[in-house]
Amino acid sequence: MRRHLATLAVTIGLSTALTALPAAAQGTVRVALGTTLSQLDPARTTIGDEYVYVHLLFNGLSRIDPDMTVKPDLAESWTASDDLKTWTFKLRQGVKFHHGRVMDAEDVVATMKRILDPATGSRARTSLSMVEGVAATDPMTVEFKLNIPYAGFADIFADRQLRIVPKDKLAELSTQPIGTGPFMFKSWSPGDRLELTKNPDYFEKGLPKLDGATLRIIPESAARMAALESGAVDIVWSMPYEAVDKLKTSAVARADSVSTPTWDGVILNNDRPPFNDVRVRKALALTIDKAAIVELALFGQGEPTFSPIPPSHPYFNKSLKVGAPDIAQAKKLLAEAGFPNGFDVPMQVPQEREQRVRVGVAVRDMARAAGIRINVERVPFASYTANVAGKAQMYVDGYFARPTIDTAIYPFYHSSGSWNKQLWIYKDARVDQLLDDARKTNDQAARKAIFEKFQAIAEETVPGIIAYSAAHVNGVSKKVDGFKSTPMQWLELKNVSIKP
Amino acid sequence: MAAYITRRLALVVLVLVAVSMLVFGVTTLLPANVAYLILGAFATPEQVHALELKLGLTDPVWQQYLRWAGGFVTGDLGVSTLMNRPVGPMLLEALQRSLMLTGLSFVLIAVIGVGLGIVAALRHGRPLDHGVSVATYLGIAVPEFFWAIVVIIVFAAWLGWLPASGYEPLSAGVWEWAKHLIAPTMTLVFGHLAHVSRLTRSSMIEVMQSPYITAARAKGLPERVIVLHHALRNALLPTITVLALDFGRLMGGIVVIETVFAYPGLGRLVVFSIQNRDLPTLQAAILVVAAIYALANLLADLLYARLNPKIRFGRHVA
Amino acid sequence: MSPEPAAATPAKPPRKPMPLQLKAGLAITGTILLLGLLAPWIAPHPWDTISMRTRFLAPNATYWLGTDEYGRDVLSRLLMGARLSIGMGVAATLFSLAIGVPMGLAAGYFRGWVDEALMRLADVLMAIPPIMLGLLVLAVTPPALWKTALAVGFVYIPPIARLARSVTLTLANEEFVQAAKARAESTSYILFREILPNAWPPLIVEASLRVTYAILLGSALSFLGLGAQPPSSDWGLMISEARSFLDRAPWIALAPGLAMCLLVIGINLLGDGARERLDPRLKARLGKA
């Protein structure tokens, strides 16, 4: 998630475009996903399986490479005014949509206006909450006016929902989606498979190497892995952690793992008893053995952390230590808070996310030692929004890597943050101040200090218990060449080829 | 008979109307705000209200029901709230696949079930008889999802003979298509063999002991002729009604099997739409399954009524 | 999904009583029930305490059936789960008896519109495959095992009601009922004192078989996530959770799978045996198991 400020005011060509080889027939890669897509319209996507598809069909103004650096994509370059409130994007010339029309500034404006329109119902609307206006100043230039200084503005556009769509095909996005990406939509059979074909006019010359890609929906995780081992699929996206060990000895496939800022944790409602009392939240935190949770839930594929900032990030506060459980202290805090005999509390876990269910089971067992009696309830993930988020007393949830530290922290911890209201309803004046300050500075050292301090406060006030940063693991057939897992957890397939 | 059938069919229609009301009523109780599901977590109350007005969710339930039922009768099954596409074609596609799966399983259950029943009856009381009993019993006494997982592990992961899951259209090649049907079919067949084989066995045993078989034997007819021409014809009659019931049961069995094997049919559509609170899809899918289920049960009843007089062996009519 | 009794079929002439079936059924079911009831005292290890050092142990001298992904003893979980699975099945069946029997009694005794109304209601419920009806009913509320029991019981009300009705239809014409009517006994007296005691035998047999369908349906619902909740050791849930570890630790799934198999067979034997005892004419209907 390194902020790549060098991209400011700099035009960077794509190295791949210069070194590309002539495209040869390279076959079709078959990818297994676990959940059916309920949306083909990128602005409305909400789950990882959908993001995989979005990344193959669409491009953003900027993009995040597997090393988490931000690079220009559909924009060729961008500049910011000195007050960081006016941002100008120059678009790449001659990029064609899949229906053959050349992309221009009006497409970008239409895409953004559509996301900003509440009626669209895009999750990304909040990412653009600082945008006051967007306009095309010439056919290849787009200008954004912001209501606050925002240093990381260009990085936001790498995010999933903000991909550029054609202004003349907005109505068909749910049925016949059209983008600019390396692959084109061929067919979608809900619950079964999505067929994509190579975009011959993709703007990075020579890419993609494949003729096409098929995304298969296979909900049963054992079935996904069996399909990989039998050669029925070539890549299992986000493979189950428990199967990683087994692939180590496999002759046909390997596990490709990468650290990510993706986190899971226990969300506590700071606005409702009993977790409106910081002593109770702290008591719960004191019972938790995060190292054991990483082992139980992820089979070791992750690291304990304190906030959405992962240990692999330069801003991670290394002075904080993952402590061992302290049951005596937890009991003392509970008694002080008026629960000498503990209490009963229900905890929702998302039925379809096995590792989060395991987090829940582990936390239940650990909290029991201090007298917190948790009743685990598995509920369909689909009912989270309406019934759990921001309402339940405690529940297990998690969030994918965001393109920037700001987008990963601010909406979750600032008292005005959009996600904050959906999660823990947390309010700390010191955190608000820190996060506002961070948005106004480009100075790396200052930002590092700010975010280290933020982590210390978060650990001390326990809005919730972030258990770990999870690794992202793909099961990859040994026939697949050129594949690398990316921390953003979508699939980068344009450089991939298949050995016969 | 014709009057009876007409009356029963009319009854089935009435029952289905009632089922539609029941399903509609229950689904409106599902704890999820559809507008929120569509608009996402950050929808404002005004947006939610606007969308609810647009979808007609603020109308009284009976009005919503009439609108939905009216559409259903005219072939408009509504639009999936989650997939954003018409329910009709989606449902039809899923139905075709499910019928393919259940149809194939049904034929196999009939053939294998009857075959095993005959063999067990002829070897009545001997090891083979007990073997068949135990095997079919295992199929019925262990949950289908357990066998499904065992099949995946053995045939897909260990032996690598079959794909672990999914579905290929016929256009992908006959073998590809067939390969994906084998594992779920196998599981379904195993789970449903017992009814047919046990019933065939017991009626076979009974027929073989009846006076007219003894008479046939006395005439010196070869055993093969006795079994196939005389005994089987009579013994099969009760089996046929059970087969019709089994078809209905298969429509229920696909819920678990299609989920485990990622087979994109009706059963999965039902589970998916329940999990995702996709009410239009759920309502339509359950009604279609109920229709098939009710018709299969009706057929079983009719067959039973039709065949009943013929299956007297002079002693007892159940 | 679940086994249903075969449609009425011609029966064989009475043969010698065959108590073996009943004995075997009693022995199997009784043993499982007893082990389940005594589980808290005889379980060798805690059923729900996570233990990092004992994960995925194959069956051995300390852990007879091995350990699971949380390092918990599979045998102890299995024993604790027995009471849940049996309890769920029995509770569900009692619920369907409690509602279905009065329904059937009323329909069979009053006949006319009462009969028509109740039986059409049963038709409606029976027009949806049990598992889908169960899913539908359970989706309305946050999941819990007791709700699964109620939902399963609800699903199986119609067949119980139908049987109770047909038994009542026959009994209503019997002399002792006519005599009670002639004595001007109250309707509730006739229904519950005269008819019900005589209707029990076939109902009990049916109910004992219903328990197995209830266990299977309940476990399927648990498997689909709408039944017991973790860390519960309900057998359906155990299998559902263990399916991710089948290649690494097959014993976690095999133990509850085989246990369920044994239980269902045991109860079926019990039911078949009881049926033969009570109604010799139907003896051979299901053959020997």
Average pLDDT of chain B works out at: 82
Count every helix of chain B, treating DSSP H or I runs of 4 or more residues as helices. 12
Instruction: Describe the largest sheet of chain A.
Output: 11 strands, mixed
Apparent shape of chain B: elongated
Indicate the multimeric state: heterotrimer
Unreliable residue runs of chain A:
1-25
User: How many strands appear in the DSSP assignment of chain B?
Assistant: 0
Number of helices of chain A: 15
Distance between the ends of chain B: 21 Å
SSE sequence of chain B, one letter per element: HHHHHHHHHHHH
Q: What global shape of chain A is seen?
A: globular
Q: Strand percentage of chain A, roughly?
A: 15-25%
| Structure class of chain A | alpha+beta
Tell me the number of strands of chain A.
19
Description of the structure:
With 500 residues, chain A is an alpha+beta fold. Chain A contains 15 helices and 19 strands. In chain A, strands 1, 8, 9, 10, 11, 12, 13, 14, 15, 16 and 17 form an eleven-stranded mixed β-sheet that branches. In chain A, a hairpin with a 5-residue loop joins strand 2 (62-64) and strand 3. In chain A, helix 7 packs antiparallel against helix 9 (327-336) and helix 12 (405-413) packs antiparallel against helix 14 (429-439). The model of chain A is unreliable at 1-25 (pLDDT under 50). Chain B has 318 residues and is mainly alpha-helical. In chain B, helix 7 (144-158) packs across helix 10 (223-260) and helix 10 (223-260) runs antiparallel to helix 12. The two termini of chain B are 21 Å apart. The model of chain B is unreliable at 310-318 (pLDDT under 50). Chain C has 289 residues and is an all-alpha fold. Chain C has ten helices and no strands. Chain C has helices spanning 19-42, 74-110, 112-126, 130-139, 145-155, 157-172, 175-182, 187-223, 235-242, 251-278. Chain A binds chain C through residues 220-222, 240, 242-243, 245-246, 292, 295-296, 346, 348-349, 351, 354, 357-358, 360-362, 364-366, 375-380, and chain C through 48-50, 52, 69-70, 142-144, 225, 229-231, 243-248.
